[in-house]
Fold this sequence. Notes:
By secondary structure, the chain is an alpha/beta fold. The chain has one domain: Pyruvate Kinase, Chain: A, domain 1 (3-Layer(aba) Sandwich), CATH 3.40.1380.10. It has helices at about 1-40, 70-85, 100-105, 125-140, 205-284, and strands at about 55-60, 90-95, 110-115, 145-155, 160-165, 180-185, 185. The strands form two sheets. It has a five-stranded mixed beta sheet, sandwiched between helices. β4 and β5 (about 160-165) form a beta hairpin. The longest helix has about 80 residues, at about 205-284. The N and C termini lie far apart (about 65 Å).
Amino acid sequence: MEMVAAAKMRKAVEAVLRTRTYAHLSWSTVLNVSQSLNSKDGFIHPLLAKKDEVKKVGIILITSNRGLCGGFNTAILNKAHESVKKHKAKTDFILIGKKGEAAFHYHHYNIAADFHKNDIALEIAEIASVAKMVISDFLSGKYDKVMVAYTDFVNASKQIPRVKQILPIEMRSQDEFLGVIEKEGHPKTSNEFPDTKDEYTFEPDPKEVLDEMIPRLIEVQLYQALLESNASEHSARMSAMHQATDAAGDMVDELTLFYNKARQASITAEIAEISAGANALKNK
C-alpha cells in the first residue's frame, strides 16, 4: 500500500506543480481587473459584491474516499469546524470525497450536495459541476459566502489544512494563494505579489468579460484545491503506511523474540525432565 500511495503521490504532485502557477496568476489577474474597474466607474460584478450581513455560508469540503491516511481527514474536518464557529452563521456543506460525511455524523452539519471524487484528478471538467452549483446558489442569494476547505500540499511530509473564501472574491484579499510557495521557510501570501497598475480595455464591455472570466476563475481555484488535496492525501497515506510497515516490523521482531524465549524455556524444561528421569533410573 505504501508503494501504491507513492506512485499515486508522484502523479498528483506533478499535476499540482503543472497548474499551480496558472492558478496563482489567474487569481491575481482577476483581482487586478476588479480593482481597475472599481477605481474607474464603481462597477461591481455580482460575484464580487460583498454582502452586508452573512446569514448563510456554503463550505466545499474536500476529503478522501478511503481511510488509512493518518490524520488527513480529521485535520481538514477540524479546520472546517473552526471556520463554522468563527463565522457563526448557518452553514451547508458540499462534499467532495466520501469521508466528508463525518461532518454530518460527528458535527450534525447539513449536507447540501455530495459529489464523486477520483483518486487522481485528470481534467477541470471533474470540478465544473461543483463550481456551477455554488455560483448559481451565490447569485440566487442562497449563500452569502462560499468557501473551500482543502489540504495544501507543501511537501511529502507536510500538509496544511486551509479554508479559503472563493465567493465573493475579495479584491483586497489577504488570503494565501492555493498552493504554498515557500520562501525562506515562510509561505508566500497574495499581498506579497506586486500589484499591477495596468490599464485594461474591455470588448465588448466589462460585465460580459467578467461574466465569462470569473466563473472560469472559480473553476480553476476549485480544481487547484482538488489537486492540492489529492497530493496531500496520497502523501499522508504513504507516510501512514510507512509508519505502519515499521510498526509491523517492530511487532514481528518483538513476537519472534518472545517466541524464541518461550521455545527455549520449553526445551530447557524438557531437558531438565529427561535428566531427572535418567538420574532416578541410575539411583535404582
